[in-house]
Sequence to fold (156 residues):
Amino acid sequence: MIGAGGVATVAAFKIAQNADVFTDFMIASRRKEKCDAIVRAIGNPAIKTAQVDADDVEQLKALFNDYKPTLVINLALPYQDLTIMEACLACGVNYLDTANYEPRDEAHFEYSWQWAYADRFKQAGLTAILGCGFDPGVSGIFTAYAPSITLTKYIT
Fold:
C-alpha cells in the first residue's frame, strides 16, 4: 500500500483484519515514520514499512522489485497515480486506487489519463482497478448488486 494519510490508515486497519487474504503487507510513503506509526497502532509488527517518493518512478520500481507485491494499493495523492501506474507496469504488478488522477495544480474529474493505460495493462496481463474508493467508490459497487434486488415492493 502506498500512502499513510487518513484514508490509508483506515485501509491499513481493514487490510490487517483480513490477513487470510493479505498474507504479506507493506505500507510505504514519503515519510516512513508515518507508516511505522500506523503499524504500531494496528499492533502487528509483521507489517513491513518503507520510505518511497511516489513521484519518482525509479524509486517505486526499486521498491516493487525488492518487495515483489502482487498488488499495489495506491492511497497516495491523486497526482501520483500515473507514476505509480508506470512503476506497476514496469514491474508486472497489479494496481488499485481509490481516486482518479488529477494534475498537481488543476482539478479535473475524469479518468482519461488513466484509461490511456488500459491497453498497456491488458497487454501485460495485469489488472488496474480505478476509483474504487471515494469517487464513485462504494456506491459503484452497490449498483453492481442492484439488479439482484427486488425493487417492486418499494414502488407501490
